[in-house]
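Good morning C.,

I know you're traveling, so I'll keep this short. The sequence:
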Amino acid sequence: MGIETYKNLVNDFFRDNVQKVTFLDDPVELIDKITISFANTDGSINDSASALAKFDGFNQIVVSGSGEADNNDIFDINQAVVAAKLIVQGTLADEIAGASVSLKVPIPVIWQNDGFNVPINNREYIQFTIIPAPRFLRSFGNLNTYRTPGIAIANIFTPINFGTKLANELADIIATAFTAKSTGAVRFNTATQFPSAEDKGGAYYITPVHLPLQYDEQI
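The C-alpha cells, ready to paste straight into the viewer:
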C-alpha cells in the first residue's frame, strides 16, 4: 500500500467517524422534513417546501433519514443553492418525498493540500493533516513486513468569543473516534489533546489533537 492510499484511508476514516457527526454549533439545518426528494439524473436534492436557500454559501451537507442508503451521506455542494433545489457531487438514488429527511451543515474540514479556503462568518473549522515517518523493516520471511509510523493532526479552530468549551467537546469526539481503532492496514494509538492557544491573528483558539498511527505492509 503506497503513501497516498494510506493517507486516503485515514482521511476517509476521519470523514466517516468525525465529520459526518459534527455540526456547526450555531446549526444550519432542516430536521425531519417529508418534503425532500432526490434525483439521480442531475444529482439534486429537492424541496417542495422551498426551504433550501439557507444552505447557500456552504460547501457541504450531511443527509440522514432517507429511505435510500446512497442518499444518507456527506456531499459536496456543487452549485449555488436555490430555494427548491441544490446540486451535489456524488451519486444519489431516485427517491420521492415522504421519508423524514434531515439536512445539516457539517463543521468544515481543511484537508491537507486541498486549497480549501478558511470558512467565513466567524465559524468553527478543523484542519486535518497526516505526517508519515520513514518506513522500517519490522520482520522478514518469505514476505518482509515493513512498518510506517506517523501522526495525524486535527487542529480545531474555534472563534475566540466561543471560549474553549466547543473545542474541548470536538477534541473528545475526535479522540474517542480514533483511539485504539483501525481502518484497513492502518491502526491508531491513543489520541492526545494539547492546550488551546490563540492564533497569530487573535481571532481563533487553536486546539490540537494528535492521533498517532501506523500501518504495516508485506513486500
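Safe travels,
E.
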